[in-house]
Structure formats: structure tokens, C-alpha cells
Amino acid sequence: MTVLLSDDLRVSPVGLGAIMSVYSPAAKPVEPAEALDILNYAVDIGVTFIDTADVYGHGANEELVGRLLADRRTEVTVATKFGITGDLQGNRRARGDRAYVLACADASLKRLGTDVIDLYYMHRLDPEVPIEDTVGAMAELVAAGKARHLGLSEVTASELRRAHAVHPIAAVQSEWSVWSRDVESGIVPTAAELGVGFVPYSPLGRGFLAGTVSPGSLTADDLRRALMPRYSEDNLSANLTATGVITTVAEETGLTRAQVSLAWLNAKGREFGLPVVPIPGTRRRQYIAQNLASTQVVLTEEHVAALDTVADAVAGARSRDPHWISSGRE
Question: Membrane-crossing residues (predicted)?
Fold first, then answer.
């Protein structure tokens, strides 16, 4: 089973966010062999849409995905991103000038060990470079055969329109989930209008919506606490109550909390009339299988309506820096 994201870009109905890392620097990282085994298992069961970025592990993550592609390139749709310099620990900025775009693509191609990137995203908008210029450079990559399709991450509706006028955009990747719904006000309906697919990242709230994060479970150095206010100790306690309806729906349907959250996103895709392919990340085989199974779930209207109430009760913003995400620029 595949989903047509846009034009001729077909992907598995759920992808895998292959960052394969953890939020706490003190936590044990995933060993490369273990990570590769997880990636291979995902492809084995039909999760063939693999998402990475050059900033993840400063290129190491792309090299890992490259090991997968070395044996299974024809089975995998690979997406990667450019545009964040520094790191993800708060020492970051966006960059999108032409020279940088072209250099990043060549570096990613080398690390991935492939001659073409299936879906190449601008990870964040450079506030000092018009999006038309950045997408123009990305279009050069398509013309050169180095990228098949272009995508944008965390853009506003107007930014998408401006970019799409330069070159067709196949997909927008932004945070969208039961507890993060700001994208529904502008970018989601605009993507539907333009025929652009939507790829929600963090569809499980970085573990919180799946029930794997709770008050007291995050270490002091956990990046979620530093960069995302809703993961502060006080807000987590409030949000545990706010998301209790997910547990209720899970118990009533016999699904996991993660499956309920992903099925809700599928329902929203039908509501807005656009293809939605979430890319949850996980380090466990059973979760990959459960996430894939969620694509066969259709929630009742009553359950969807109940889950729709969650976001309004959530405490804390999804980013410490409002301009780092699309809602801060709408």
C-alpha cells in the first residue's frame, strides 16, 4: 500500500523519522548496527519512506541511512533536509543561500551514497534570504537530476505559495498532532488547495502522546525541557490530564495510544482533503509495526471529536522560539 503525496511521489502510508538519537546527551545512543537493523526491519514490513537530515548527528545519520540504501536503494524513498547550521541543542540558525543549498545537497548525496534524493526539504527558512531564492537553488538540483521532488519544513501559507510559484512543492513537513494543531489555521488548507502533501513530524509528541514520557521521566539535560515549554515539569503534569482522552479512546478501541494519535491524523487528512503521511520515530520494532497498523484504523466521529478537545487544554508552547516554527510567522 502506498500514498500519493503529490504528482508522482508515492510513499508508504507511514514513514520512519530516522533520527535514531535521544534527547538527553547523557543517555545511551543507539549503536549503528542496532539502528541499521531497525531500518531494515521497517523496510521489510513496508515502511519504506525514510526521513533524515544533514544536521542529525552532524551527518552521521545520513551515513547510517546510506548503509541501508547501499543494499536496498530501489525499495526506499529517502527524504533529507538542509538549512539548519550549528546543532539542535539551541545553537542553531537557518541558512538558505544558493551556494549553501548546492553544497549541502552534494554533501548529503555523498553521505547517503546515492546519486539522487527522492525528496529534498528546506529544513528551516533563512530570514535573510527570500524563499524564492532558496527554492530557485533547490530547483537547480531537480534540473541536474540530484533531487526528484522538493519539500519545505515549518513554512507559513504565504511562504508556501511563494515557493510553489517558483517550483512545484511536493510536501510540507511540520509538527502536527493531537496536541499541536496550529498548522490547521493556514498551512494545511493551503497545502490542500495547491495539491501539496503533508508530512507531520513528531506526530506522537516526542513520546508524550504515546505514553512513554511522563512527569519526572525527563532528565535535567533533556532537550525537550530546554527548547519546548510544554515539556517543563509543571506543564507536563497539566498535559497528562489534557491528553487523558487519548487513553480513554485507546481503551475503548483496543488500540495503543500511539495508534489512536496516528489514526486521528489520518482522520484530519480526510477532513482537510490532503494526503497525510506521519513520520514517527522509534527505536523499537514492535512500535514500527504498530504504527504501520494504525493506517488501517478508522476512528468514529465521536472519538475524533473527543480527541479534538485535547489541544485547547494543553499547557505550554511547542517551541521556546516562536519564529523557529511557522505559527510564529503567520
Answer: none
Q: Which amino acid would we find at residue 183? A: V
Burial (CB count within 10 angstroms: exposed 0-12, middle 13-18, buried 19+), residue 113: middle
Cell of 102: 548546492
Helices 187-194 + 257-272 axis angle, to 10: 60
Residue 95 near residue 85, CB atoms below 8 Å: yes
DSSP code per residue over 51-113: E--TTGGGGHHHHHHHHHHHHHGGG-EEEEEE-EEE-SSS-EEE---HHHHHHHHHHHHHHHT
Catalytic residues: 56
**Residue in the structure block whose three cell numbers are 495539491:** 195
Record the pTM: 0.95
**Are residues 310 and 235 in contact, defined by beta-carbon separation less than 8 angstroms?**
no
Total number of domains constituting the chain: 1
Structural domain that includes position 100: 3-328
Taking the C-alpha atoms of residue 134 and residue 130, their distance in angstroms, rounded to an integer, is 7
Q: How many other β-carbons are positioned within 10 Å of the β-carbon of residue 53?
A: 24
What is the DSSP secondary structure assignment for residue 28, as one 8-state letter? P
E strand or H helix at 250, and its extent? Answer: helix 244-253
Average pLDDT of adjacent 10-residue blocks, the chain of 330 residues: 94 92 57 92 98 92 96 98 82 94 98 98 98 98 98 98 98 98 98 98 95 81 86 90 96 97 98 98 94 97 98 94 91
Find the CATH number of the domain harbouring 187.
3.20.20.100
Q: At 209, give phi and psi (nearest 5°).
A: -70, -20
Helix (H, G, I), strand (E, B) or coil at 11: strand
Helix, strand, coil % (nearest 5) of the chain? 50, 15, 35
Q: Position of cell 535514531?
A: 20
